[in-house]
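Box 3.1 A note on notation
Throughout this textbook, protein chains are presented in two layers. The first layer is the amino acid sequence; the second is a token string describing backbone geometry. Keep the layers aligned when reading.
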Amino acid sequence: MHKELETSAALRDVKYEIRGQLANRAYELEKRGYEVISLNIGNPGLFGFRTPETMRLAMIENLSQAEPYSHQKGIFPAREAVVMQQQDRGIHGISVEEVFIGNGVSELIDLSLRALLNPGDEVLVPSPDYPLWSAAVSLNGGTPRYYDCDPQRGFQPDTAQLESLVGERTKAIVVINPNNPSGAVYGLAVLQRLVAIAETHGIVLLADEIYDQMVYDDAEFIPMATLVDDAICLTFSGLSKVYRACGYRVGWCVFSGDLERAAEYVHGMELLAALRLCSNVPGQWAVQTALGGFQSIRELVRPGGRLHQQRDVVIERVSASPYLSLQRPMGAMYAFIKLDDRFAGKLDDREFAQELLEEQHVLVAPGSSFNTPYSDHFRITTLPDSETINLVFDKIDSLLQQRT
């Protein structure tokens, strides 16, 4: 009899609990007939947010051209549209040759790290992070080292602590702005300091900017690449969030900065892109229309817009709760909520998320699954309508009242 098949050792340090055991348990409950309110994933289409019609029409009209493989970097109109967007933002010196289209940003994160890392190399990752970054670093032979973005600092990076982590094997700094899960939007001084550290030490900047236009109130999104001169910067964005097209699986990655020093890196990415032939072609035909057309996201994030309004309802409900607190999210589509100190040692984030699912049928993501050293936060998406958000907080307060 053959011994039990073992999976790759590379998976031992890989976690993605957003779609992990709690999500699987929620699926089991739904199969048994329970209605679960799932707030674990920022998936706009599940909450009634539609992809702009012009993007759907662009795909339909170009379906006949979407049947063959495209160039491994993506179709020219999509890459050209990304270049034009970057130029409009003040990022110069790039062409379509520095743009890669992928099956979502997720694939491009994997390819960029695979092309960069050797076993034992280190990548500085924010804590809290979006756990795909940590997983992709580990899967590609690297070691994630976490720099602090403490709640007490408004989840802004501690740049002094970050620089203290830089060593001989440090290859890159991951910057997620606007931030998932915290909703923080980084100020100019912080971004300039991150660029200075990268340029001083010859480190690559990996700028995850998938929520780039999703900011609220007086927050300002500053593209990392606009601040870079001598470093190599990779900017990641896509159609999933701002354009509410998660299922299209279209993201892009743009090289900028010291392109001469980046030449081999670009070549490595192109080789890996060729090995997977190309990314989803129909979805690529929506990029030019998305970036060049009416930016409907602006209506959603301004006061009175649906995203702004629902975020405000979350803020109001947390403020009214005796059991919760929150650093006001200024971007993205999440709230990273803290349990009151009275629960310390009695109820951590994982126990809370498990009880909330089992007793109230609400699915949230434990904060520690975002690689935090503390276990008193949880993340929800702010996408549901106001009625659903109020229902969720009624359920949360009911559960926590029972635990006091």
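The radius of gyration is 21 Å. The longest strand covers residues 170-176.
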